[in-house]
Automatic annotation (TrEMBL):
CDD domains, sorted: AdoMet_MTases
Annotated EC: 2.1.1.171
Protein's name according to its UniProt entry: 16S rRNA (Guanine(966)-N(2))-methyltransferase RsmD
Keyword Transferase attached: yes
MF (Gene Ontology): 16S rRNA (guanine(966)-N(2))-methyltransferase activity; nucleic acid binding
InterPro entries tied to this protein: DNA_methylase_N6_adenine_CS (IPR002052), RNA_MeTrfase_RsmD (IPR004398), SAM-dependent_MTases_sf (IPR029063)
Source taxon at top rank: Bacteria
Pfam families on file: Cons_hypoth95
Sorted UniProt keywords: Methyltransferase, Transferase
């Protein structure tokens, strides 16, 4: 696996050594970050269900200022730690070993970009977006990027966050969401 673009372009990073983690394909990452490119300069980014950290590290490579990585797996935490050290970005990341909702309940940080890439068989994105909206964890011009299975649908509009763009790439849906008054 590699970083696609930016400062760390073509640098290899390690995958989580577990079948429980699904790595995001390069063409999905490329599509996400081509859409986000203007929003990443010095952005504060949250990478929930971080796995190897590939999405957050890609954001950092493209100019983000700080990444909070969240994953409940010890193997994922170790992999993110290794990848951060390999890229020499450890000062720009914080790794949290806990589940997504526990982290959201414990933080008061307001994020510019929130990356959600849970396992496709876990139906939690609507609950997470509802929590983010009701507790104002997304900046006024911020973006949530959610990756989920092709056969899954989201129901997020009632909390003031709307789906402004959706792409289907292979078996993955990618939704870009913003506050309804910022769209």
């Amino acid at each position: 696996m590699r970083i696609i673009s930016g400062r760390y372009r073509h640098r290899l990073i390690k995958e989580v050594p577990s079948d429980a983690t699904r790595e995001t394909k390069d063409r999905v990452k490329e599509s996400i970050f081509n859409s986000l490119h203007n929003q990443l300069t010095q952005a504060t980014v949250l990478d929930l269900f971080a796995g190897s950290g590939s999405l957050g590290l890609e954001a950092l490579s493209r100019g983000a200022g700080h990444i909070d990585f969240v994953d409940q797996s010890e193997l994922a935490r170790q992999t993110i730690n290794t990848n951060s050290k390999m890229l020499d970005v450890f000062d720009n990341v914080t790794i949290h070993k806990m589940d997504a909702m526990t982290f959201l309940q414990s933080t008061t940080t307001i994020y510019d970009v929130i990356l959600l890439d849970p396992p496709y068989d876990v139906n939690i994105i609507d609950d997470i977006i509802a929590f983010i909206a009701t507790h104002k964890r997304l900046s006024s011009q911020g973006t949530i990027v959610a990756l989920y299975g092709k056969k899954t649908s989201l129901n997020v509009g009632e909390y003031g966050i709307i789906d402004v763009k959706k792409k289907t790439i292979g078996i993955t849906n990618v939704s870009f969401m913003k506050w309804s008054d910022a769209a």
